[in-house]
Structure formats: structure tokens, C-alpha cells
Design a protein that fits this description.
The chain has 352 residues and is of the alpha/beta class. Helix content is 42%, strand content 9%. It has a four-stranded parallel beta sheet with strand order 5-4-6-7, sandwiched between helices. It has a three-stranded antiparallel beta sheet with strand order 1-2-3. It is globular. The relative contact order is 0.14. The structure holds adenosine-3'-5'-diphosphate. Adenosine-3'-5'-diphosphate binds next to helix 3, helix 8 and helix 15.
Length: 352
Amino acid sequence: MSPTLSTAAPTSQSLPPPPPPPPPLDLPKYLQDSQLTQECRDLLSILPTEKGWLSTHLHQYQGFWYATRHMQGVLSCQKHFKAHDTDILLVTTPKSGTTWLKAITFALLNRENYPDTTQNHPLLTANPHDLVPFLELKLYVEGQCPDLAPFGSPRLFSTHLPTVSLPESVTASSCKLVYLCRNPRDVFVSFWHFTNKLRLHNMGTNSLDEVYDKFCRGVSIYGPFWDHVLGYWRESLEMPHKVFFLKYEDLKEKPDVNLRRLAEFLGCPFSAEEETEGVVDEILKLCSFDNLSNLEVNRIAKLSSGEENNTFFRRGVVGDWMNYLTDEMIERLDQITEQKLQGSGLKLRCVL
Ligand code: A3P
């Protein structure tokens, strides 16, 4: 039997589909605001807001400042992330040496799987941020609940979240936190360069003075810097088995000593055999600024969020602030640092 041909006039249902909406502005992902849920929008509408360094706005949530794009990830991570007792979280404020810490810890934990650091090692072909993802900036950034099963055990993640905003399960579980801090003068200068590099041509650059004032007032991503550092410093004093506090400057000065301390803390100390074989030095060489920054993946590739990998490698030294900050700037920054750290026992070195 032949099929019946319809002779009816086309209804609206059979009209061709409307043309696709115009493509979104050709912005890298890190400049786009993610799809915000109504809950997130409602929250943003009541939070204190300031102009951002890179993103249009920064919002103050639980005492710290976040770009609009990241708020969804922060909320989603707080709500859904369930820490395992065996998890390891690497924590920093931006520009404190996160990339370096990720590389070192990844190499340390995976040294049995990848004994040869010169061949077939994941760090030779992948940026450390791809190997150790940020919870709120990558895994939960779009507000989704990611499948974390492929991470095996122990799971290695990172975050810039301050202590007060960590998901509850992080505090409740026996997972371990490694915090890396850096002196505020170098953090500020590094941050200024970083955000200017990520700004598009038509956005111009931020003047040092303008963002310096914001930094001092605590208005920078995950700022106030001092409150962030102090939160983890105190936790590390109260719970030294849970929070390991490291300084960029110490890692620069005595990388081998600090790598051994980190290995002990994470429960995977170097064996006598490994010491004889020079495993500590091999890891440090693999993760050195010169080695990582010259790898093809870190010279020409990008993260899925659009940042070029080379933006995470600039000079990698202690004391570059000398080339940028005026005496008045140093004085104001030092005054704040002194005031904030007073009585905490924490000392931050600006030179080696
Ligand atoms: P500078 O801008 O002062 O050079 P983060 O990884 O938290 O974004 O921090 C970036 C800073 O760490 C940059 O500092 C970068 O050069 C430095 N850095 C990146 N990799 C490093 C490495 N392997 N060793 C030392 N410093 C490194």
C-alpha cells in the first residue's frame, strides 16, 4: 500500500526551524559569565560588588571577592563536593606558585607510575592545571556535578577557596590540605602582569596604581590576600596533621628539603633507595621553572578555559617587585601586612 501524501497546508510546526542565534561574542571562556542559576543571580544581586581587574565585576561572598563567572562554581562546589578521607587538596591564593605546587605534588604522588621524568611523563605534555584541576574553577565551574570517578585514589584537586568557604566535607573528612603562600609584594606584581596579559587588546591594560589600591583594600580575586593566608596559617597550627603550610620563598631556597617534608606529610616519604637514585632531584628538575616553561605544551597550548599556558610562567623569582613598586607602595603594603599578621607568628619574606 502506498503511503498517503498529505496535501494539507504547512502548519507552523512544519516550518523550517528559525535561524540559529548569533554566535556568542568571540570572548575567551575566562571572560564569559557562565550560565548562572536563579539562585546564583539572586545571591549576586545582594552581594557587595566592585569593578574587577579582568572580569567586569567582583562580588564579595563570605568575606572574599569572586568574579561573576566563578560564583556558580563556588556555590556548586560548596553544595556538591564530597571529600574522601584520602583526598589531597592544593590550596593557594592566585599567583602564589599554584602551577609549581601542582607539578611537584603530581610528580611526587605519581613517581611509581612514571619513574622516568624525561620520557612519557604526563607533565611533559600536559599543563599542571590540566593534571590537577581546580574544584570551583574547572570541575564545578558551570554549576554541574562532575563525575569524579576517573580520579582514582588518592584524588588530587586544587582550590583557591579560603578556609571559611571550603565545602563542609573538606573540614569533616580526614583529607589533607597543602597550602602554598607567597609574599604579597610578588603576588601583587605577578597578578598585575597576569590580568593584563589576559585582557583583550580592546580592554586596554590596568594601571599599576589602580589595581594596587584595590589589592591593598582586599578587592582582588580571592582577596583579601592576608585573610586568605591567615586562615590557612591558623588551621595549620591547630591541625598540623591536616594542613601543611609552605612558602614559595622557602621552596625556592631549599626545594629538596621542602619536597621531602611534603612527601612525609602526604605519607609517601622517599625511601633510602630513591634517595640514592636521586629521585628528589629528578622531580625538582622536571618541575623547575626553566624546564616547564620551555615545554611545547606550556609555550603554545591553552587551557580549556582559554588562558594560554604561557601566562602561568613569567619570571618565577623572588623579589621581582623591586622592578615595579615605589617606596610609598611598599610602605603601604608592608603596613597592612604588619598589622594583619601581628600576633600570628607568621613571617613573610620578600627577598631571599
Ligand atoms: P611571576 O609572575 O612572579 O613570575 P600561579 O601558578 O599561582 O598562577 O603563580 C604564577 C607565578 O608562579 C608566576 O610568578 C610564575 O612565573 C611562577 N611559576 C610558575 N611556575 C613556576 C615554577 N616551576 N617555579 C617557580 N615559579 C613558578
